[in-house]
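Suppose a classmate hands you a notebook page containing two proteins, each written out with its sequence and a corresponding row of structure tokens. How would you begin to make sense of it? This section walks through that situation. The first entry is reproduced here exactly as it would appear on such a page.
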Amino acid sequence: MSAKVLVVEDEEAISQLLAYNLGKEGFTVSISADGDEAMIAVDEQKPDLVLMDWMLPNVSGIELCRRLRTGNDTRDIPVIMLTARGEEDDRVRGLDVGADDYVTKPFSMSELVARMRAVLRRTAPALAGDVATFADIVLDRQLCRVRRGQRDVHLGPTEFRLLDVLMQRPGRVFSREQLLDRVWGQDVYVEIRTVDVHIGRLRKALNRRGDRDPIRTVRSSGYALDETYAG
């Protein structure tokens, strides 16, 4: 189960960047451009976490956080504030109205995701996303460890990220281009056949002693994790 994250950000370029990168990390993301729209979105589908900008049109992030904290059905929703404000007084003000954490722009996505998972570990451990499971395979992102059944599976960093992407959406067919984007990044040039090489290494590490191969090759399309293939 993935955590539902509501991003409240009025700058479209930033909200789309957040949605894209958080989606890559396995979160289910929705976007609101202002505080009023965010309250409607919360009423329609309660998120597991709200990621909001401090400076919003009409209703500020501070006021939105205050409204969430005073609502019977919303007071427990964790809130992380994003802002260019870095002064101590501003941080204290954000925390005083009930924000769970405060991330100052500019920030790295790895830091933001780590902060989000830390908050979710406190409020909804099952959604923190540190551990993913598929059939008899367990992937621990925090420990960078993979087990299949009773044995450890030793993977290189690229194979680990590749398995992580596949485990975020079991059954979904990822094209080679999509896997290149999610595992190697958009700004890195890598030959398309490199994906096949690393899938081969991943299969070799996962499948021992007659284990069923959980990775399905879809001709001319890509790869997927498939329950019918897993042991």
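The notebook's second entry, a different protein, reads as follows.
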Amino acid sequence: MTEIANVASADVALQLDRASSAQERFRIMYEVLRDRICMLVYAPGTQLGEEALAAEFGVSRSPLRKVLQNLEADGLLLSQQGIGTLVTDIDVDELEQVYQLRMELNELTGRLAPASIDARLRALFEEMHKRSEALRGEPARESFARLNIDFFHAFQQLTENQPLKEVSERLFYQTCRIWLKMIPSMTLENEVDIFCREIEEICSAVALGDVLAAAMIRKAHLSMGFTRLRSHRQGP
């Protein structure tokens, strides 16, 4: 994940103008729109207009349409004839099998071509830990969601198996916005505390160079997180 998704619209247009290839321009637009969907900038049900987005990014509608088609293939958008392109809704029960697969893929992170823990990776996870402590001191929905996304991409660097990383990324983005959707009905401070403890435990494993331990911790927390989501969804 690049930092492109965090920049303002004017900066996105500038990034696209400076892109060296059509493939890079596609990646920029794809990541920006995916990020907006998963941060609920575009809430479920939002209609995305090709003309408005093309004008914002300073591109023609043809390459933008390809980006929207890929986001639809990812399950984040739905094109309906006579209506347009809509952001899809998210439901815990419908995502159960996705969560189950994500749990297994997390474990594989520690088994398939695990990365060698070097100074760069240790520094990256130490930065994640610092950010988690800042979030714990000042809980906020948007900061929680942002750290959730950024920590996922940090965790992805613990494996060098590219197919595993690609599948994991697609499934992550199918599920990650459910937290923002449901946190208003949950206890934000409690969820932040649980997430920060997960980051702390994983960072400790990374500091020791134990990728498998980090992967198993991630798997366990994902399982517990899904159980909490279902519990809140079903009510007392």
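A careful reader of the second entry would note: Strands lie at 47-48, 77-80, 84-87.
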